[in-house]
Design a protein that fits this description.
The chain has about 375 residues and is α+β, with helices and mostly antiparallel strands. Strands 1, 2, 3, 4, 5, 6, 7 and 8 form an eight-stranded mixed beta sheet that branches. A seven-stranded antiparallel beta sheet has the order 9-15-14-13-12-11-10, with helices on one face. The chain has nine helices and 15 strands. A hairpin with a 3-residue loop joins strand 12 and strand 13. It folds into two domains: about 200 residues, Nucleotide cyclase, GGDEF domain (Alpha-Beta Plaits, 2-Layer Sandwich); about 150 residues, START domain (Alpha-D-Glucose-1,6-Bisphosphate, Chain A, domain 4), CATH 3.30.530. Helix content is about 30%, strand content about 30%.
Length: about 375
């Protein structure tokens, strides 16, 4: 049975370039985060029909929501979207094209009303009808900005654009465009770029960047510094580098204050990224590890280019928490224990460094061959 209602599509601008010209592994993950954010932003009156890669098809049956309701939702989605992109940029560790260009993405919206059918397919409800097709066609237009809200005449007939005095900047622009099988479609759009001024800065977070003392050891790697950095910061590669690591758990993309867990046969080690700094001269990266016996330590990596290759220095230091004991005897034995454990970890890390170097150099050879 045909129903009349609203069709509302938030669409990620820049999606095609983002997923075709950057690393697919991280671009897909970032897009999925942003789509989830759009779903979370809709806490009101719209149903979800389907997720379409770079867009979400929302709808509402019967009575159309007033313009001010939709305008508030559009603003919330836009601000939430760009606020999250600022957080991604703040916490960015990975230097790949996807992670470094995510802030170039934006949003556009299509608001249309018409007639469509709700067709149940397994646990989903798919919308079908010519107005659903038209709403998607409207995303292909000659509007020059990539962040806008377009309202068709079909919607505006019953819901005129009523903006508040504070939104004097939002000047609706009439737009006419012809589409095959639909003829000329009249609409109005509002450039949303002014909303960017209301996007809050991401709150500052405490991070540590830079080696705090002399390294425990240094290795030479026949690879570029950025490749070395990308591999040591990608926890999903650890099982490939060290067979003793049976798997990893955690967020796929490494970010500041993000965590992951390395799973071994008889224990799990929990890691938190505590610092990352990338400059022309050097790269610094730090992560804290909890081995589950009341002992945590931080590993600092300093990466610099030397004669076209990489010199990587490593410093492993125990966390200071357990040293702050009032009893001098307990403090003495605790410090002794820390020194013993730290020495073992340094020795094991240095011993296993050959596997990491071999892995990185093999990846460098693959890159040079392509």
């Amino acid at each position: 049975m045909a129903n009349s209602g609203l069709i509302f599509i938030p669409d990620i601008s820049g999606f095609t370039k983002f997923v075709t010209q950057t690393e697919i592994k991280h671009s897909n993950h970032i897009i999925s985060e942003l789509i989830e954010l759009l779903l979370e932003s809709n806490k009101s009156f719209l149903r979800i029909s389907e997720i379409e890669g770079d867009a979400v098809l929302f709808y509402k049956l019967d009575k159309l929501p007033a313009f001010d309701e939709l305008w508030k939702l559009i603003k919330k989605m836009f601000l939430d979207f760009h606020s999250y992109l600022k957080i991604i940029e703040r916490d960015r560790v990975c230097q790949c094209g996807a992670c470094s260009s995510a802030s170039d993405l934006s949003l556009k919206f299509i608001v249309h009303c018409g007639v469509f059918n709700e067709v149940p397919i397994q646990s989903f409800t798919k919308l079908m009808g010519k107005d659903v097709i038209l709403a998607h066609r409207l995303l292909k237009n000659e509007i020059r900005t990539n962040e806008y809200a377009l309202f068709t005449d079909a919607y505006l007939t019953e819901n005129p654009l009523l903006l508040t005095p504070d939104e004097h900047w939002a000047k609706p622009v009439e737009h006419y465009q012809s589409y095959e099988n639909f003829g000329e479609i009249k609409s109005q759009y509002i450039d949303l770029s002014q909303f960017r001024a209301e996007v809050p800065q991401a709150p500052e977070v405490k991070t540590k960047s830079g080696m705090s003392g002399p390294p425990n050891f240094t290795v030479q790697i026949k690879a570029k510094p950025l490749l070395v950095h990308s591999i040591i910061t990608d926890h999903t590669l650890k099982p490939l580098i060290d067979p003793k690591v049976k798997g990893t758990k955690g967020f796929e993309i490494n970010r500041l204050n993000g965590s992951h867990t390395c799973v071994f046969d008889d224990l799990e080690i929990h890691f938190v990224t505590t610092g990352n700094g990338v400059s022309e001269k050097e790269i610094n990266y730090s992560e804290r590890a909890d081995i589950g016996i009341g002992f945590t330590f931080t590993t600092d990596f300093k990466i610099v280019e030397k004669n076209g290759e990489t010199e990587m220095s490593v410093r492993i230091r125990p966390d200071k928490t357990d040293r702050q004991l009032n009893n001098p005897i307990k403090r003495f034995f605790t410090n002794l224990k820390l020194k013993f454990i730290t020495a073992r970890i340094i020795a094991q890390t240095k011993k296993g460094m050959n596997k990491l170097v071999d892995f990185i150099e093999n990846e460098a050879l693959k890159e040079s061959a392509t």
